[in-house]
Structure formats: C-alpha cells, structure tokens
Amino acid sequence: MDRTLTNFIRSLRNAEVRISTAETLDAFGAVELVGYKDREFLKNSLSLVLPKTEDEKATFENCFDQFFSFDDVSADQSDGLDGSAEGDAEGEEGDGNGEGGSAGGERQPGQTSGKKKSKSKAKSLSLLEEEEEEDLGQGEMTQPSSALGQLLMANSKVDLTMAMAAAGEAVDVREIQIFTQKGLYSRRIMDQMGLTELNYEIGDLRQANSIPARRLGQELRRRRDWLREQTRDYVEKQFILNADVSGKRLREELLRKVKLSNVEHRNFRMIQEIVYKMAKRLATMHSRRKKVYKRGLLNVPRTLRHNMAYDGAIFDLHWKSVKIDRPKVFAICDVSGSVANYARFMLMFLYSLEEVMPKVRSFAFSSDLAEVTELFDRNKIEDAIAKVLRDYGGGSTDYGQAFIDFRKICLDDVDNRTTIIILGDARNNYGEAHTEVLKEMYDRCKRLIWLNPESRLSWSTGDSEMRRYQAYSHQVDESNSLMHLERVVGNLLKQVT
Amino acid sequence: MADIEKIASSVDSLKLEFEGHRYICSDQIATAVYLAYHLRKPVLIEGPPGVGKTELAKTAAEMFELPLIRLQCYEGLDESKAIYEWKYGKQLLYTQVLKEALDEVLDGAKGFTQSVNRLHEFGDIFFSEEFLEPRPLLKALKEENGCVLLIDEVDKSDHEFESLLLEILSDFQVSIPEIGTIKATHEPPIVFLTSNNTREISDALKRRCLHLYIPFPDIDLEQRIIHARVPEIPEELRRQLVAFIHELRDLDLKKVPAISETIDWARTLLLLHAETLDPQLVRDTLNVILKFQEDIENVDGEIPSITAKIRK
After folding, report:
1. Complex ipTM
2. Chain B interface disruption, residue of A9, A31, A48, A322, most B CBs within 10 A
3. Of A250, A271, A346, B253, which one is least surrounded by beta carbons within 10 A?
C-alpha cells in the first residue's frame, strides 16, 4: 500500500508538483482514513493534501487518472471473449512467451534449465491454443493453483494493480528512458508476476478431463490476455510518468544555459515559463521590508513598557510607523535591429519583472524612447512584446537621443532610491553618445546597471560606445543567457531593497 | 449541542448537513471538511471572489454549533492584534499598587540581599495570564468545546504575519515569551483560511494546510445553490438566469460574476416580479452582476443574442 503511494508521489514530483516530506506524511494519514476502496473519494482527499496551487491540481488530476486507472476485470470480460474468438492474438502470444522466457533467463542465470523447460512448454502451449475453443458453457470451475491464476480469478483490480506495481518495481520499470524499451519492460513485468507458472497451469488445465477444469483453463487464458493488455498500458503510463518529464527537465536546464539568440522559436513558451518563475522567485525573495521610524503613531505598548522604569510616568516616547519599502526600478530596453535576437527575451524578462514587482517602469527605444509600462499592463505577454517590437523595434540605434528622451520624460522621477537598468549593446552607429545625459542619470539614481548582450570581448569594438558609457554605470555586466540575467537581477534586487 | 462526531462520520452526511444549512457543496468541499476534522488540519481555501469561501467556514460553524471566531487580515496586522496583547493599563496600576505594598513585603528585611530574596519570594504576576488580553487566535485556542476559526483573506496580510501563523496552524499552540507555551484545550479549533490569491502564499504555510480550490460551480450545482438560497424564484427563470451567468463567465470581462452575484441577481429579479429574462430587464439590472462600467458597456451589445440563446 505504502509503496503505491510513494510511487504516486514520485511521479507527481516528476510532473513538477512540489511535494514535501511533511505532505507525504499527510497523504499517508489521509489514505489511512480514507482507504483505497472509493476511487473518487481517494482522489478528492489526495488532491486536498498534495497539490497546493490551481495549476498543480490540474497536473494532479492527470497524474492520478493515469496512475490509478485500472479497468475492471469483470467489465472487460466481454471484450476479452471477442478477442479470443477472432483468434489473432495467438501468434503474437507464443512469440511473447518465448521472449519472455529468455529475458527471464538473462536475469536469473541460476534458473536457466528451469526456464528452458518452460520455453519448450510454452511452445507446445501455443500449439494447443490454436485449436478451436470448445464451448463449455457457463458453470462451475475448479480453483486455480498458481499464484497469478488465483490473483486473476480473485476479481480484485486493486490487488492486481498492486501486484503489477510490485513487479514493475522489481524490474525497475521507472528506469525506462526511451519508448523502444516498452516491449521489453512489459515482458519483464509479466514474467515477474509469474507468467510461466500460469502458462503451465493453463496448459495442464486445457488437457484435463474434467469440464470445470477446462472451463477454468479457458477463463484463465482470457484473463491472461487481458492482463497482458493492462501491463502494456501500465508500462506506457510509467513511460509517460517517468521518462517524458525528465526529458523536459533536461530541456529546461539546457535552455537556461544556451545563449538567448540561439534559442529556437518553438521553445519560446518554455523560456517564458522559466523567465516567469525566475522573476517571481527573485521578487518574493526581496519584496517587502518594514522600518520603524521616529515619527508617526504613538506606540503605546512600547512606550508604557519603556516608561515603567520611570514610575509609569510617560516620559520616553516611542513611535511606530510602518514603511513598506518597495524597489523602484526603471528599465530601459534597446529593441533596435542590432539586438533584434535578444530584444524579445529582454522584453519578456521586463514584462515578467513588471508582473511580479510593483514599481517597475519600462521603456523601449531604438532611436526615440517611449514608456511601455502601461502597454505591458494592458496586454498579454505575446501581444505586448509584439506591439513593442512593432512600434519601437527594428530601427537603427541612437542611444544619445534615447537618453535625451529619457531625461525629458522622467528624469524628475529618478531619486536616490531608484535603480536604472539599461539593456542594450551600446552600438550607437557612430552617433553622438551624449554621455553627459547618462552622467546626469548616474548622479541622480542609486544604481545604474548596464546589461550588455554582447560578450565582453567585442565591447568597445567598432561603433560600440561601451567604454564611454561604462564610466557612468555602477555596474556593467555581460548578459546573454538566462543564467546571467538571473544572477544579475538577483544581485540587483538585494541592493535595491 | 450538535453531535459533531456523527455529522462528520462520512462525506455524505456532511453534504446532507450542509444542504440542511442551505450551503450546497461539491464532493470536494465536503471531503475537505471531513479530512479537516479527522486529520485535525487547517484548510486553506482559494478561489475567485464570491464562490463561498467565507460562507463555508460560517456554515461549518453553524452546522457544528460551535462559536465562530473570525480574524480579518489586512496589511500591517501583527501579533498584538491577532494573538495577544498585555493589558498595559492594568500592568501600570499593578506597579503602583506594588509600590505601596512594598514596605509590607520588605518588612523586617535586613540588608540588600535579604530584601531581594523577599522580592523573589513575592509572586510575580506582572506577566501572567491575568494581564493578558487574548486576541482572536489565542481566544480560539482557549475555547473549551472547540470552535471554528476563520482567518479571512490571509493573502492581504504581510509575510511576517504568515510566519506567526505557522506555530498555531501546525501545533495548535502559541508561545508567549514571558509566560511560555499555551496549548489548545482538548478540542482544537477547526481552522479555515481563505485567500483570493492577490499574492502567493508561502510554501511553509501551504505545507501545513489542506488546500481546497473552489472554482465556479457548473450549471447544475449553481441551480441547486440558487434553489437553496432563493427558493421562491420560479424554476424557469432560475434556469435562464444561471445559464445567462454562465454565458457571461465565458466572455472576456474584468470581473466575472460570482455565485454571490447570481444570488443577488435572483433576489433582484424576484423583487421585480420577473417571469422570464428579456433583454430590457437584463439591461436594467446588469449593474447587479457586473461591477465595472467597462464590463457593462461590453456586455450591453451581447445581451439580445445571449438572451435568445438561453431561452431556447
């Protein structure tokens, strides 16, 4: 029982639902109370304990349905009958048995001789099964003797699922990585569950004289076929639960390190998610802080306590005033032709940052600069970025003009608690650099940070004004991957708050 | 006194009992209350505004016949307003009284050491429960027969306050430095926290709670809710108005109407003796369900087509 639950939690974690150990313990508590009997009840209960956001709940639903789905044996019986009547499953079966036997042999060298025997037995079995089904009608059956046979006849899908899960565990089905391994793993699981003994039994039963025994033989065969289907499904699910996602994680890890300009368009959405996560994490890390000031409301308890020493005469006053300190950030983003590849991601980052931090004002320019804060507020991320690129992007860069525009629009709002971030390559097309305006900004603000997507080596080559601008920045950094960006912004937020 | 054990014995009996108190709930909600009671865990309820998050806690209190203690959260809420505060005035008085009585206490004491010893022997009640002013959280812990504690809109409070809640939520106790730890009486409170998701609740808090997400109900459930809350409304009108609301929720609105708005609307229509929804009536009463002028203007043009659709 416990195994099933921990496995389920493991696949949830794989699907990026964050579950702590304490929550796992809670889940055990809930399962103890609820039991495995009522599927819907169990699902409702676990969905209260394990996933903790709306998105996670959706993921949970999927995972649960995949993990705990196991069709009813009795409900499937009619299907099973149809299948055996068509008789096309037989050939495949013999094949499966043979290979299953050899796979088993590989794992347990000590038992090779025994397995060989079973292999020949399996062959004779498949011959037998090609005979026409006798119509034995409904009626009494003998009891199966093999463990798997008993399990199959017990009609308990819960026990069967658990047996299958246990077998899966024994053959490490979780290690499945690529889809071509699916067949191999299904055979291994069937084998682990005791397919060989079951085949023996079926063979013996079908040759038996008494009608109830033959009837059991037929029934067992049908259920075995059904079990095979189930095992295939199970492995398929394990593949989806385990392999697919680690693939995604790998991809995400890669994307973080790869240069932004090289990222393909189709990964855009994923990058967006990463950026959002990152910005959110950064912002919650440094969001608020309180200060107690020497003015504001009288802090009565504190005052009284401090004045007890003076006979309770109110003498030494204490004030309270809560000040919530939020970082104030001005971000200026170059969206001109020379940084076209980066602009999209820079904007995306800006957008996410604005979503999670209350006081960011964003500006975009290629030659003329304009504020895009409101545009970001009103539009969804794709629209917003597209609009900014349409309205401001693509032109040739003029940093000088942009700084002059900035001075005109909002230099008055820049104070000693403001941080200015400039995202751009400083390639000014040999135009007037207007460093004096940058100096003015530099003097007024708390920090001015320049993030350049070009590598340090190419700074100050050609028309790049980086060297001159560098002098009026508190910090310059190369930032052309998300890792870079994350690090820089992390530092920034620490200093801002 | 209601038999809590019996009500909470199964999810179905909880559902029935909720229905008896005119709160129609889904399996998920009933399961949450069931687990909350049996596992002794707080429930964090999230969902869009107006889906009955606060109402759930209130109804639960009514149903279990327990007192409801409510703590409304806001920015700047701190422990002196939520957990406890010292009765400073009384403490001051006490120091005055003590000063007068000091001679008696020290009567006959010789030397400084002896005096200090005498003072130590003198019971110190300065920081004791008599001087403690319990605030909602502490009150909830001290309730003899248990209670329902509702911590409303916890997302409106500060991060620091969330951390304050952790102790009480996981162990049903608060630590007061001067006194020690105060534990819940034998019956710990049933705790509900609600959040509108204006900011992300910290993982530490989430970890300690069951997490219940209440979405907008489907048509059937909402009809039953309206039936329970406004039983006088004719069936046909009820069907139409719920269908209309569901159409609205599919539109791109600044604030989509919630259940509470549907109920208000049903009451309004009842008051106007309406029999069916016609465009003019909808237009006149639209401000009951939509709270932004922008939304009202957007929807205005759609009214005829929606009413035609739902009348079918």
Report:
1. 0.82
2. A48
3. A250
